[in-house]
């Protein structure tokens, strides 16, 4: 059976009632735009990496069929055996919006539409949803349109925006994980088993702490000294009298970051700027990573054996105190 009927060759189409209207009528434009939106959502379903998002989008696609069918009817009220958009569907969209937005950091300005394919497709679908809403508003000036439909299409565009933000967030987080892993592995090479026994000795820990405190006293800056081993496990934390309370949080984070990233913390500053490979690293790590000076990895004979973090003065003062301490023992800050 052919799919063509030739009945629309004159530029008209039939509603469910059988009445023929122009294909340029606002009613046809409205459900035609919903059809376009449905096709765009199919691309979103294929691109998204989140199973919950796929399930939601597929449910929305089904709802758009009901939506279009209602617009193709002349009746203002759906029949008892007809599927139609309800307030429960709107509530589902609002719940999805709240869930997605709770996962992403707040914005204080405009954003470019999508840094990942899934987010880009969702943003594109969002613009079609906005156009569908405009079509529906125009249609409502000529025929009665249920208010629930107006609310639904408005929430749908918001929902697609929220899902796009969440997809971007997930994709960017994965990029950061891959970049951190790449950097970590790039600086790690197979070493003979005996080399893994190397670590900071008690004398190393004592000398690092003593030298850091001596330099801090010399420049009259009370600091917190923190030392971790090559696995990031805390070994020493020493707080000088009158050191800032916040330094008790920052010094261990600097030491841990230096080991985790195998890099001095001040060297990470450029890598976390917008557009750089590790942009957003601090927020993704819930503040555990520090990207300003005062943290140094400790290397010996090509092996990472620990990290030192100093906090209490300016960035320059913290770095100076740390470098003075490191110079007192047989370690390097680079592999």
From TrEMBL:
Residues 3-166 form the Cobalamin adenosyltransferase-like domain. One of its GO terms (molecular function) is corrinoid adenosyltransferase activity. Keywords: ATP-binding, Nucleotide-binding, Transferase. It is an enzyme of class 2 (transferase). Its EC number is 2.5.1.17. The keyword Electron transport does not apply. The keyword Repressor does not apply. It holds the Pfam family Cob_adeno_trans. It comes from the Bacteria. SUPFAM superfamilies: Cobalamin adenosyltransferase-like (SSF89028), GlcG-like (SSF143744). InterPro entries: CblAdoTrfase-like (IPR016030), CblAdoTrfase-like_sf (IPR036451), PduO (IPR009221), PduO-typ (IPR029499), PduO/GlcC-like (IPR005624), PduO/GlcC-like_sf (IPR038084). NCBIfam families: PduO_Nterm (TIGR00636). PANTHER family: CORRINOID ADENOSYLTRANSFERASE, CORRINOID ADENOSYLTRANSFERASE MMAB. This is Two-domain cob(I)yrinic acid a,c-diamide adenosyltransferase PduO. It comes from Pseudocitrobacter cyperus.
């Amino acid at each position: 059976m052919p799919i063509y009927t030739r009945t629309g060759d004159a530029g008209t189409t039939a509603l469910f009632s059988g009445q023929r209207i122009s294909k340029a009528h606002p009613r046809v434009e409205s459900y035609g735009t919903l059809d376009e939106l449905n096709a765009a959502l199919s691309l979103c379903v294929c691109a998204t990496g989140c199973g919950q998002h796929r399930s939601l989008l597929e449910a929305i696609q089904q709802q758009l069929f009901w939506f279009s069918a209602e617009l193709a009817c002349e009746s203002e009220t759906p029949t008892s055996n007809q599927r139609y958009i309800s307030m429960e569907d709107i509530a589902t969209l609002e719940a999805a919006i709240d869930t997605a937005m709770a996962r992403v950091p707040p914005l204080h300005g405009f954003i470019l539409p999508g840094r990942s394919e899934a987010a880009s497709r969702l943003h594109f679908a969002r613009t079609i949803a906005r156009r569908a809403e405009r079509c529906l508003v125009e249609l409502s000036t000529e025929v009665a349109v249920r208010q629930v439909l107006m609310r639904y299409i408005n929430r749908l565009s918001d929902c697609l925006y929220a899902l796009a933000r969440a997809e971007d967030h997930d994709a960017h987080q994965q990029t950061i994980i891959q970049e951190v892993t790449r950097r970590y592995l790039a600086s790690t090479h197979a070493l003979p088993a005996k080399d893994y026994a190397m670590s900071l000795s008690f004398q190393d820990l004592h000398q690092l702490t003593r030298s850091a405190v001596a330099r801090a006293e010399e420049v009259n800056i009370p600091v917190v000294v923190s030392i971790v081993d090559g696995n990031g496990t805390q070994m020493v934390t020493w707080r000088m009298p009158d050191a800032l309370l916040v330094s008790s949080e920052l010094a261990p984070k600097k030491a841990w970051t230096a080991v985790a990233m195998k890099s001095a913390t001040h060297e990470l500053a450029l890598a976390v700027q917008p557009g750089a490979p590790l942009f957003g690293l601090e927020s993704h790590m819930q503040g555990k990573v520090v990207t300003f000076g005062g943290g140094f990895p400790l290397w010996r004979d090509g092996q990472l054996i620990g990290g030192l973090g100093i906090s209490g003065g300016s960035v320059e003062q913290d770095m100076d105190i740390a470098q003075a301490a490191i110079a007192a023992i047989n370690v390097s800050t680079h592999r």
